């Protein structure tokens, strides 16, 4: 029971108090309310809120790298693409990139709430391991609480639009961004490769300098990158012919859109 009270408080914190919210009819509020059985006031194990499943998979070779493949349902992906379209992000035909700092548009705030909520819920309802608590070793944690509870969770976004054949070179995200980055994928699937960042190679145990770890980014998925994954590994997407293979099959490439959410380091 105590845990249930705690969970309710956390959900209220993550999503706002729906009873006192003028926007009480918005879908995520309704869904969150659905976690508490009105007649018994008991917390029920939820239907996944944001997609078919809300399972977070660790990429076991890389500490701090997680993916939730069904983060956004097909409908939610379509709504996000049309929000981007309406705001002019998709206007250019060629590869382009649009950045926003500070006050994020409402769809990006909603994505942030979804990410926080989804992390919290999977931690609470995971039977095999508690993904959130400090009792867990740092390496197996989904996302450290100090990152999860910062306000705002994210204050910068990049929308990348890639035409078939276009990708992004191997890089570590700039140090002006804090730890804890989320990447949402839309439209075409693609393989993102992770390789050790040379300068830091000695810090990554048991990993060969040439290691290249492929991760399949499916539409509607979200990737979380923190700690070693964020600082000690480069990530890249090479969509030149021959590089986008998954389980021996070349991926049929279409336009791909990604939304990257980050937080700028505070300036003194
Ligand atoms: O498009 C992606 O999935 C990754 C984008 C990225 O790595 C970046 O903008 O730093
Ligand atoms: Fe990046």
From TrEMBL:
Family matches, as SUPFAM superfamilies: Clavaminate synthase-like (SSF51197)
GO CC, sorted alphabetically, is: mitochondrial matrix
GO:BP terms for this protein?
DNA damage response; fatty acid metabolic process
Where is the Fe2OG dioxygenase domain positioned along the sequence?
Answer: 153-265
- Where would one find the signal peptide in this protein? none
Tell me the protein's name. Fe2OG dioxygenase domain-containing protein
Q: Write down the PROSITE patterns for this protein, in alphabetical order.
A: FE2OG_OXY (PS51471)
Xref: InterPro entries: AlkB-like, AlkB-like_sf, ALKBH7-like, Oxoglu/Fe-dep_dioxygenase_dom
Q: Using the UniProt annotation, give all residue ranges assigned to the region (Disordered).
A: 1-37
Q: Which domain of life is it from?
A: Eukaryota
Q: Which organism is it from?
A: Sesamum alatum
Tell me the protein family, please.
Belongs to the alkB family.
